[in-house]
Write a structure and sequence with these properties.
Shape: globular
Structural class: alpha+beta
Oligomer: single chain
CATH topology: OB fold (Dihydrolipoamide Acetyltransferase, E2P)
CATH architecture: Beta Barrel
Strand order of the largest sheet: 2-3-4-8-7
Number of strands: 12
Length: 175
């Protein structure tokens, strides 16, 4: 019997302009700690990462930012939320963030708004998209979108900062 592989999650592709418009801040920082916990009904596990911000690419935030996302591990229980951000202690990340109540932030665009920062063989800092292979991105035209590729961190930051006037124009057109 033959079967075709199915994607675990499907998301509408977001352009950098759309990601920025959905965010209040874009930061570059290091994950200091990650902890998981049950929701009040003990039906879902969430994880929170404490990020120490080293660069505010766009917008302003405190130096320490708490980011919440579905999924995590508690004892023998594990919830994998495909398409949602995950964090590991001591990793460096670039995040598009929006408020999620109180002092908690959420990554905009699911994993589309999360990049891991790595150093390539030439010593160049590279922003690596974090979308899993199981995630299917669909363009606004209904066709499969091309997943984002790694890009030099400096190039990504410059392109994000260049979009600020464009997103301000988009926001001013909203009713």
């Amino acid at each position: 019997m033959l079967t075709s592989p199915l994607s675990a999650s499907t998301f509408l592709e977001m352009s950098p302009t759309q990601l920025l418009a959905a965010s209040s801040v874009v930061v570059d920082g290091e994950v200091l700690e990650v902890h998981s916990f049950w929701n009040d009904d003990r039906t879902l596990i969430f994880s929170e990462a404490l990020i120490e911000v080293s660069d505010w690419v766009v917008g302003e935030s405190p130096t320490l930012v708490r980011v919440r996302t579905p999924g995590g591990v508690l004892g023998d229980y594990r919830i994998d939320a495909i398409g949602f951000p995950t964090f590991a202690r001591k990793e460096r990340v670039l995040l598009f963030l929006r408020p999620d109540g109180g002092d908690i932030m959420r990554v905009s665009g699911y994993r589309q708004g999360q990049f891991r920062i790595e150093v390539d063989g030439k010593g160049v800092e590279v922003a690596v998209p974090t979308l899993e292979k199981e995630v299917l991105l669909i363009g606004r035209d209904g066709r499969r979108a091309t997943p984002p590729e790694p890009v030099a961190l400096s190039t990504l930051k410059e392109s994000i900062r260049a979009l600020v006037p464009e997103t301000a124009t988009l926001e001013s057109k909203e009713p």
